[in-house]
Amino acid sequence: MRDAIGKVTAVALEYAKIDAWDVADAVYADLLKSKLKIRRVERLEFARGLCQLGHAMPDHAREVLTALGAGVLRGPGEPGGAAGQPGAAASAPAVPPPPAVSVPVLSEAALARQEKAVDAAYAVFQGIRKNYAETPTAEQARGEILLMVAHWRSLAQWQRSAALAGRFLADNPTDRQLPQHR
Q1: CB atoms < 10 A from the CB of 179, how many?
Q2: Which residues contact 170 (CB under 8 A, 6 or more apart)?
Q3: How far is 109 from 145, CA to CA, in rounded Å?
Q4: Higher pLDDT residue, 182 or 163?
Q5: Residue 47 burial (C-beta neighbours within 10 Å; 0-12, 13-18, 19+)
Q6: From CA 138, how far away is CA 74, in angstroms rounded?
Q7: Shortest CA distance to 2 belongs to which of 79, 82, 87?
Q8: N- to C-terminal Cα separation, the chain
Q9: Nearest to 63 by CA among 29, 96, 26
Q10: Closest by CA position to 112, among listed 146, 157, 154, 149
Q11: How many C-beta atoms surround the C-beta of residue 14 within 10 A?
């Protein structure tokens, strides 16, 4: 059974590699709707969030989906996971500082497309934080949300960054790093 699920998720990853994000998302969605016994449903939801994020941050989304498929994001005691393994589920992705290079100039239409993708990804990741709060995937989802905040900063979209950070704080009033994010 695990091999079959692995093969299906590998198909989704192949679609992601060619920027067919909606198709990759549909593959994960169909897998979620299937009657297969899936042990960690939140991982498939996380992959769907990455497919949404792929519209705005394709390289990052592909990298994380690849790591997810390779088992790098699995926690200790899980098949394919190991304690202390780089990228293990216990450690959420760090938010990189804004780059010191020039900021790309994007049209309002491109920014609106990215905002739509980020909003869709946020909804998925926040849903994981709410519905699977005690799982390592919830921490990964938190890291992806904070990375999206940093993404807006990297584009010098200060209002979009502040709005997303404010939304995160409103949705997560007990976040452990609340004072640092204010």
Answers
A1: 7
A2: none
A3: 22
A4: 163
A5: buried
A6: 13
A7: 79
A8: 45
A9: 96
A10: 157
A11: 13
pLDDT of residue 104: 75
Task: Tell me: pLDDT of 87 over 70.
Answer: no
| C-beta of residue 88 within 8 angstroms of C-beta of residue 81 | yes
Quickly tell me which residue has 């990375």 as its tokens.
147
For residue 147, CA distances in Å to 29, 60, 77 come to 24, 10, 27
Look at the chain and count its residues.
182
Structure tokens at 38: 């899936």
What is the reported pTM? 0.79
Q: Which residue has the tokens 């005691």?
A: 77
Average pLDDT along the chain = 84
d(C-alpha 112, C-alpha 100), whole Å: 24
Could you say which DSSP state residue 92 is in? P
Instruction: Give the tens place of pLDDT for each residue, 23-45.
Output: 999 999 999 898 888 888 899 99
